[in-house]
Amino acid sequence: MGTNTENCPLCGEPAASERVSDTGNAKFRCDTCGNFEITLQAQDMIRQAARETPDLFPCLSAATRLATERGERIVIKSGNLRELAQQHAGLSPTAKLRLLLEYLHGKSGFFGAPVPFNPNKDWPLIRAAKRDECNAIVHHAFSSDLAKRVGDDMKYTLTWNGWQNVDPIGGGTPGLAFVAMAFSPDLAKAFEDGIQPGVADCGFQSIRVDKEAFSEKICDRIIADIRRAQFVIADFTHQRNGVYFEAGYALALGRPVIWTCREDDVDNLHFDTRQYPHILWTEPADLRTQLRNRIRALIPGARLA
Ligand SMILES: [Zn+2]
Q1: What would the CATH number be for the domain defined by 173-298?
Q2: How far is the CA of 30 from the centre of ligand 1 (A)?
Q3: Spatial separation of the C-alpha atoms in residues 232 and 230, rounded to whole Å
Q4: Distance 65 CA to ligand 1 centre (A)
């Protein structure tokens, strides 16, 4: 099977393509969308969607390119196409700016290091809606003294101001939520189907310390992650001491705390903190909705729809 050049089904730019003989799938290698595989059925769906839902495409490019950066290759099928796109849809411009700064920060070996970034090809890395939005965000980063161009070609570096924005000394990183909760199996869905998507609905990102890392040593990690976060979500179901500690530490740092608890455990809430307005939830879906509404009401920069 030889390699051809044809237009990438996601971004429309010329890309290297190859048929996979036994399945009829096509593999693409695109400078913009990275490496991905796509079924014939999904290609048909995409042609259809080009007329009906053009907003789908930048989100798919983000899914495939970010996977490529992680060393994975996504297979786009008729069954996962919409879900893949939805995972990358609707981020606020503030969150996209943060992704740009985090990308430059992550690729900088040292402060001032030039990092290659081409808005015309690398726009999926910051989940921009095509190159126009990416260019607009890059220009905003320049005019706000967050990033600057180095040399003549497409290389950028963070300014001191931009570096502080990603790696703050004082305030938290915009759009980052630290999640404090018990690591018990009956709460796994509450995180996966409630908290995580509820935060994502607002264009934000949630971080949680891994359950394996539940030792004395992890305390430094927790402290650092809370310091890094813009706000904290604390779920008190099962009344873990650690959650009370983390919420208290966040309050002391001046970070907003969103209090949640499963309804059947509310009577066990500690007397001293019961006064705070807790989101009382019964299942993950309703936790997601209530959390989304509370974040939108309290946290600056949240995406509103
Ligand atoms: Zn492409």
Answers
A1: 3.40.50.450
A2: 5
A3: 7
A4: 9
Domain ranges of the chain: 4-86, 93-166, 173-298
**What are the 10-residue block averages of pLDDT along the chain, 305 residues in total?**
86 93 89 96 86 84 93 93 85 89 89 94 93 95 95 90 78 88 93 95 87 59 89 96 93 92 93 87 97 92 82
Q: What is the pLDDT of residue 170?
A: 62
Asked whether 156 and 102 are in contact (CB, 8 A), the reply is: no
Kindly give the distance from the C-alpha atom of residue 200 to the centroid of ligand 1, in angstroms, as a whole number.
25
CA of 140 to the centre of ligand 1 (A): 25
Q: In angstroms, what is the span from residue 72 Cα to ligand 1's centroid?
A: 16
Q: Which CATH number does the domain 93-166 belong to among 1.10.8, 1.10.3470, 1.10.10, 2.30.29?
A: 1.10.10
Q: How confident is the model at residue 217, as a pLDDT?
A: 59
Beta-carbon contacts of residue 197 (< 8 Å; ≥ 6 apart): 288
Q: How many angstroms separate the alpha carbon of residue 256 from the centre of ligand 1?
A: 40
Identify residues whose C-beta is under 5 A from ligand 1, the ion: 8, 10-11, 30, 32-33
Strand order in the sheet with 229-235: 205-207, 173-180, 229-235, 257-262, 279-281
Q: What's CA 86's distance to the chain center, in Å? A: 12
In sequence order, the β-bridge partners of residue 205 are 176
